């Protein structure tokens, strides 16, 4: 599909593939093994790789020490909501920037990207105050809206670059056929930019899934707490139960991994090959 | 009238399309940034005294600021190209015609699925002197008799941090580049084959140029995030040994949260913004050019 | 007819709404912020007792901030925004001065009584830790201190008595590790990572020489030579193989896990560790653990670091009177004895250490009392966050051998000196 020449020999390809798989899976596998060990086993010298007495106690503890399932649900709701909203907002903005003749296009783009140039920790207190004033603390929306803003620069820029690469003729053809501009956006441009859309979607999802600072400050109530904050609570002032935390991490990673496995075909799949020939 | 609503003029449409984005920006970011700049010139305590540029002068005279900036720029210079090269390699690999594509693609993105706050902790454990995998492997291979304290030596600690950052962010790069690879029409390669171009030539003359927009997008964000590197050094070394691996974002976090000196923290944030704008300004111009 | 009925209904409605609002007005809900590792389960039981005795008040727990750091992260955001949602929080013993200087916590004098209250059987260290500018800012709840744990069985086996000075401890450790011939057995485990505990690692040998870090006014009185000597003594122990080389990587949980696995003869750690050694399923040192005061430097005296948690009142809270009464209850002798019995938490009252009921559950508290009486508080200054950061980072760098003790102490003196004038 992509003859780059460097990987022509199958053996080389398998080695390289092996390295990639190792690179991606090794830490996850290590966490998995750790989640099956006891804390005492972690300080044995020399260290053990495979758990000597694999046990599921840590998973039980992970779920009973804290309402891990609730955190999982909250993270899913927030991440999905933020992703959907991010894509819509970013698609609108990206279309305007990529297609419409805007005089200050450069400035608009710079403004959007510039919003990500301030470290979040310095914006925390004002965002907290805003959410409190609106009465939205400890709700899903308190996190979804800031996450959309956090994702906006990346999603917009990705979509802009994808929209730009789609020739205008296709839209013009659609509009001659009676489509409005908005219709052309959703029926022609977005499907053709599908890899970009799914890319932006995955970017938005994982960023929202991972976010810690805002989730800690805005949604502190256990009922709406998200996973990263919840997992940070297994540790104590003087304790760091790696096995339990590892179990919780596996619980946190698995949904994302499944999501990626399901959608990677869409991201990479040849949906675009049709429209761009010739 | 109705037709205007159904197919509004370009200007109206532009306003409508950009409105949601800018409304959200206004609500979530503009007010905090305004407050941030305000806080950097007015003291944030009971007095609210006007400080003028005193904070800014203090920052420039603070050796810790320069140390943190140096560390941050070093991490940026190493991990941005590093992540790009590794990410490009991963993307090209993921694009190959394997029978089962999902293992390679999943392993591409798995580093990304791990919450950032824990990636650092896990790698710190990997590099631990006694309980870390790295030393264990080196011991088994007979390459060292005494375990190395990777995170206790300034240069090795920095290297370990850069490695972890590259590991974590190459997924992000690979994802963007992979999507970009999909948009390159096969016909270009077929034509080049006919013309007798070698695979290597095809790579440099078709793949890279066609991928350039995606590369730039990936670079912009990788650079901005590299300048804000916090979680990984914070969890791996706490900025240690001493302040050898302390980044600008860590310094800001320290002042804002640990010392509760919001005024000074805000000033540092303004400096970070200026540095970010300066560094990425070049890239942004490229995007603007492409838009024409 | 209709008018009278309407009047009746109106009166009834008015009366019932008055009753409801009166009841509602009397019902105060207090929200309390506790970390998940400060035994919210025990606190919940205390709140239940309080609720029963005070029907108009309902206490709700909010758990968050598992570590002092995460707590500070959360509270920093919330209190900088002047939030009134929380009424009370359980804060680390090192925090009152910092929080008070920011105006986050309310002086408790008019709710609990002035600083004199602390003279009443409380551990002496609190008179220093909780009183800032003459006003009382926090009430003790859970005590803690750093103890020297040791392997009773190994000391008996090799005929070594409890060391009273650091030299004696070094010698004892060397003798035992040499005789045992176990490569994994270390002499002494201390924390050298740049965590809060590293501040104690700096202060212990310094205090052990009878030196003070600051005067009553908060001014720095660092004796540089003594500080260098203290840090050098740690380094000498590393050179002699008593402490392991990568001590700058050791955190509190690592010390606990290593001692539990039988990999250390001596270990310095907080009070909670005793139960872990005694009760944990994977502990190999059950019944073999002794507790003693920290050794002194030759010619000095034994000193240890005071830890623990305190109740403070949100200055922006709306229910201060009710919160004040709750604090009184939570910092009472009964409360202290209750959590000592139920959770083996070190009491904040001297007499509770020898309370019969408590000793039935935790006999080792009798041995703990002399240690806790000699505990000192870390510098109670408004910039403690920064002071702590400077000390712990520099100490860790010294232990990692990237800075010499002299250079490190100079740096501490200069930077902390600017803050503590």
Give structural notes.
The complex is a heterotrimer of chains A (about 280), B (about 290) and C (about 425). Chain A has 13 helices and no strands. Chain A is mainly α and about 280 residues long. Chain A folds into two domains: about 5-55, no CATH class; about 60-275, Orthogonal Bundle (MetI-like fold), CATH 1.10.3720. In chain A, α3 (about 55-65) crosses α13 (about 240-270), α4 (about 70-100) runs parallel beside α7 (about 140-165) and α5 (about 105-115) crosses α7. Chain A is globular and about 70 Å long. Chain B has about 290 residues and is an all-alpha fold. Chain B folds into two domains: about 10-40, no CATH class; about 55-290, Orthogonal Bundle (MetI-like fold), CATH 1.10.3720.10. Chain B is about 75% helix and about 0% strand. Chain B is flat and about 75 Å long. The model of chain B has no long low-confidence stretch (mean pLDDT about 85). By secondary structure, chain C is α/β, with parallel strands linked by helices. Chain C has two domains: about 30-135 and about 305-375, Periplasmic binding protein-like II (D-Maltodextrin-Binding Protein, domain 2, 3-Layer(aba) Sandwich), CATH 3.40.190; about 145-305 and about 380-420, 3-Layer(aba) Sandwich (D-Maltodextrin-Binding Protein, domain 2). Chain C has helices at about 1-25, 40-55, 70-80, 95-100, 110, 125-130, 150-155, 165-180, 195-205, 225-240, 250-260, 270-280, 320-330, 335-345, 355-360, 365-375, 385-400, 405-420, and strands spanning about 30-35, 55-65, 90, 130, 135, 140-150, 185-190, 265-270, 290, 305-315, 375. In chain C, α9 packs across α17 (about 385-400). The model of chain C has no long low-confidence stretch (mean pLDDT about 90). At the A-B interface, α1, α4, α5, α6 and α7 of A face α2, α4, α5, α6 and α7 of B.
Overall SS class of chain C: alpha/beta
- For the termini of chain C, the CA-CA separation is 83 Å
CATH homologous group name of the largest domain in chain C:
Periplasmic binding protein-like II
Which oligomerization state do the chains in this entry correspond to? heterotrimer
CATH class wording of the largest domain in chain C: Alpha Beta
Number of strands of chain C: 11
The global form of chain B is flat
Look at the structure and give the mean pLDDT of chain B. 86
Please describe the biggest sheet of chain C, giving its number of strands, its sense, and whether it closes into a barrel: 9 strands, mixed
**Helix/strand order of chain B, N-terminal first:** HHHHHHHHHHHHH
**What is the CATH level 1 assignment of the largest domain in chain B?**
Mainly Alpha
Tally the helices of chain C: what do you get? 18
Element pattern of chain C in H and E = HEHEHEHHHEEEHHEHHHEHEEHHHHEHH
CATH architecture of the largest domain in chain C: 3-Layer(aba) Sandwich
Reported by name, the CATH topology of the largest domain in chain B is: MetI-like fold
Shape assignment of chain C: elongated
Write down the Rg of chain C.
25 Å
Biggest interface, chains and residues, is:
A-B, 113 and 112 residues
